[in-house]
Amino acid sequence: MTITEIPADMELVYEYPESLTKAYTHYCPGCTHGIIHRLIAEVLDELDVREKTIGIAPVGCSVLAYYYFDVDMAEAAHGRAPAMATGLKRVSPDKVVFTYQGDGDLASIGIAEIVYAANRGEMLTTIFVNNAVYGMTGGQMAPTTLPGQVTTSSPTGRDVETAGFPMKMAELLAVLPGAAYVTRQSALDVPGIRRTKKAIKVAFQTQLAGLGFSMVEIISTCNTNWHMGPLKAIEWAEEHMVAYFPLGDTKVADAVKALRGGK
Amino acid sequence: MAKELIEGNAAIAEAAIRAGVEAFFGYPITPQTEVLEHFSKRLPEEGRVFLQAESEVASINMVYGAACAGARVMTSSSSPGVSLMQEGISYIACSEVPVVVTNIMRGGPGLGNVQPAQGDYFQAVKSAGHGDYHMIALAASSVQEAIDLMVLAFDLADKYRTIVIFIADGAIGQMMEPAEMPPMRPVRSPAERASWALTGAKGREHNIITSLYLGAENLEQVNLRLQAKLKKIAENEVRWKEYSTEDADFLLVAFGTVGRICQTVVREMRAQGMKVGLLRPITLWPFPSARIAELTRRVKGILTVEMNAGQMVEDVRLAVEGACPVRFYGRMGGVIPLPDDIMPELEKLDAEIAGRKEVK
Asked: In 10 A of CB A150, how many CB atoms?
């Protein structure tokens, strides 16, 4: 793949973060994964940790994330990224280790692994992309699918009587003593994206300072499987998802507050 | 180093420590729990990593992660726990990272019991996880052999970037025997980790460890590479022991605890005038098929003895290819076959073969 050269007489106003490869992503037009990848890459660059960062990709739409981050990466089995990251970090405590996971991966099949990684206070950072649907398999009901939301496996809408309620992961992990920093942000508009980047930075700083487990949940869209245009999907997420999954910090340990206070 | 009286499970853990294991991730389950307990005490003493995971599913994936980092790493479990690890084992096999797993087998299926058994032969040799691959499967029949094989397991795992399973029935894990430990090897330093390992993309392209290959041709190439590696292992790493096979008319084939009991059977039968020999496979995969085939030219018949319903006997039959009768005797549910159970089976085999000759 070729990237167009910048003409010499033009000012450079945008460039790839070093922590991203120049591969084109496979994500659908309108998808928020690309934005989130870039935010992580910018943070890794700003913290100057690219060369000691190791990422774990999930099973789901971001299964190929290892092609997009220019850091060492492994691909986990569905839901097992926090266990893999635990093993990796325990034998490489000087490295920066993160997992990148979707809602089916983290909140359904891998819920034991994420809860225990958080509870042990593993020095890991998890980026949790919540778009309320299984994207890669074609739009089935996810653990975070909203009540009444129509998916290919909840054709009449999620019935909480039979399927239970959407998992509020940021709230769930916040009660664990090992979790130092847990927050829910969004990738739906520019202010939200800026706040998300700040949160990602705090999460990695929490790891670098050895304060415990950190997770940034990011409310995202899946316009393809929601069968909406990208803008309509953002409106839907703002109206419905943010109502169910309130944005903001659910856990900020005192040491993380101190770390953040310096800014 | 002098011999000491040591329990099998503790010996397995200590041998791994001497072999330079950097990290252990595991979950308690009888009859292997002493492996985990020994590591929990000794690894922190040595400044290495011990972690009791939330499940065997997590254990194997922690092992996978640590192996991706280039560390020498293992987990240990018993039958139902190893079943839970099958997913991770398949990913590890495809990713080609070196890992050692031990299975101190108990009675099954299901929750079964905690008595010694060999019902996981198929799982270790033929059906670990999904997809096409084999693990190197090592089986010990004494505490000393368990120690020696644990050291070998790590070396084979590293040499071939493959997964090695050490299997023993619960009797080996639980019994105490005099045995000698190998000297302590130095632990590999982080700087010595392999070039393929995830150590940070400093001054090189980023490393990727994955088992995902979306194109059919791509994945076929990966499989061909795996199969070529397995072929090389099969050619170079077959291990077994023979007892009194030089002049044997009848051959016993047995592994693990039964392999040891069959040594007594050989002595007893020879005292009664029947020329019995024993072949005890040490690598269950790769299986000593060629040697068994060779022995069929001399022996009249083969009796395979196992602590299961007849699993390894299928590989014996494949090796023999009908060249002589192959019979099976086994006990299940944790019952250990004793010489008095096995000897009449050899007499039956003898009578069967003699009868056949009379008919001719």
From this structure: 15
